[in-house]
Amino acid sequence: MGFQEEYNQKLVSADEAVKVVKSGDWVDYGWCNNTPVALDEALAKRTDELKDVKLRGGILLAPLKVFEREDAGEHFCWNSWHMGGLERKLIARGCAYYAPIRYSELPRYYRDMPESDRDDVAMFQVAPMDQHGFFNFGPNASHLGAMCETAKHIIVEVNENMPRCLGGTETGVHISQVEYIVEGSNPPIGELGGSGAATEIDKKVAELIVNEIPNGACLQLGIGGMPNAVGSMIAESDLKDLGVHTEMYVDAFVDIAKAGKITGSKKNIDRFRQVYGFGAGTKKMYDYMDENPELMSAPVSYTNDIRQISALDNFISINNAVDIDLFGQINAESAGTKHISGAGGQLDFVLGAYLSNGGKSFICLSSTFASKDGTLNSRIRPTLATGSIVTDTRANGQYIVTEYGMICLKGLSAWQRAEQLISIAHPDFRDELIKEAEKLNIWRRSNK
């Protein structure tokens, strides 16, 4: 049987495909911008028939139909590998929960799951089938290969707008593994817009970091205003022969590449290739990724593996944080007990960059933030707020950057850490931080 004949035999409507879902099932919605659209809508129509359907996914870019009803939580439960704004709203409704992960290990989680927790159904958007019978995952190699290996039923929703992203391994699923094929309405691929124009604080932080990047460095950028500002400044700089090995591909890389700064010629492994685990950005980025042989889509068990990261000389990792305490504990996940995002791969890149020959990891944050009532608060705190998550322990952090300067925590004792962190805090909070450091017995009398 030819692939097209098999395709025609497996082609069904979304309503027909989701009949395979039963109450109590684990149903995987894929990841980020290949979250299903037509299949989600079809499953929502079955709400009254279903109870305790446990959904998996992460980084939602559009609201899900299955959660439109007020009583959705009685029928569906969202289990997220990484939270975004839409998912935080579902947490508040009691419909969603975060699954703490070390992102690099996620493919193994799927492969090692007990039978009772494995996906009964996996359904997600893909690019159209190629001549060899493969449906490409688009910008989301991530963990989808492992997901498909272990799912009992696979349903693909074909979207002609999904970019076909080239790579190494685990970038697609073969038609022989697929039970049903659904042709959706080909909506635009979900976008994750930029964080707006860079602020003066973003620019100050970016300038401090860019001055530390050598020619031939290999870059990893996190999401957010500051990493994007760094990317924009790199695109305008005199840097050359840069490489890319990153968890998340973002728009800033497109700007840097089009400015001629990325060649990958100095990379120790995967020379000339921009390597990434998943990508979320604007249509400009998706168009750049489509069929681009310079890019290499790969599972996160490869992109986020400390051994791969550390093998790349002059590895530069740039990520955000919510806040940091005077002991050097870095929180990038929550505001107290209020969930914000997830662990992702930040710790892997912090550790891997430090192991790299000439490598550096930078955690950047503004010195302050304003609460809803306009009160100014310091992001450098005596201790993390009760319930805050420690993303990077006090032994892991290297360079910490605010608009007031850059410090390196490696090798510093407790009093030195406190002194250095207070030096890059907002001036309005420094005296109070010193008083708190004294109470915590991490301030020497000889300090000024």
From TrEMBL:
MF terms in GO: acetate CoA-transferase activity
Residues the record lists as binding CoA: 222-226, 322, 345
Chain ranges of the Acetyl-CoA hydrolase/transferase N-terminal domain: 4-185
InterPro entries for the chain: AcetylCoA_hyd_C, AcetylCoA_hyd_C_sf, ActCoA_hydro, ActCoA_hydro_N, Butryl-CoA_acetate_CoA_Tfrase, NagB/RpiA_transferase-like
Pathway annotation: Lipid metabolism; butanoate metabolism
Function: Coenzyme A-transferase that converts butyryl-CoA to butyrate.
Catalytic activity reported: butanoate + acetyl-CoA = butanoyl-CoA + acetate
UniProt-annotated catalytic positions: 247
Family of the protein in this entry: Belongs to the acetyl-CoA hydrolase/transferase family. Butyryl-CoA CoA-transferase subfamily.
Record bears the keyword Signal: no
Entry EC number(s): 2.8.3.-
Keyword terms: Fatty acid metabolism, Lipid metabolism, Transferase
Protein name in the entry: Butyryl-CoA:acetate CoA-transferase
A Pfam family of this chain: AcetylCoA_hyd_C
Record GO biological process: acetate metabolic process; acetyl-CoA metabolic process; butyrate biosynthetic process
Domain of life according to the entry: Bacteria
Native organism taxonomy: Bacteria, Bacillati, Bacillota, Clostridia, Lachnospirales
Occurrences of domain Acetyl-CoA hydrolase/transferase C-terminal (ranges): 281-437
PANTHER family: ACETYL-COA HYDROLASE (PTHR21432:SF20), ACETYL-COA HYDROLASE-RELATED (PTHR21432)
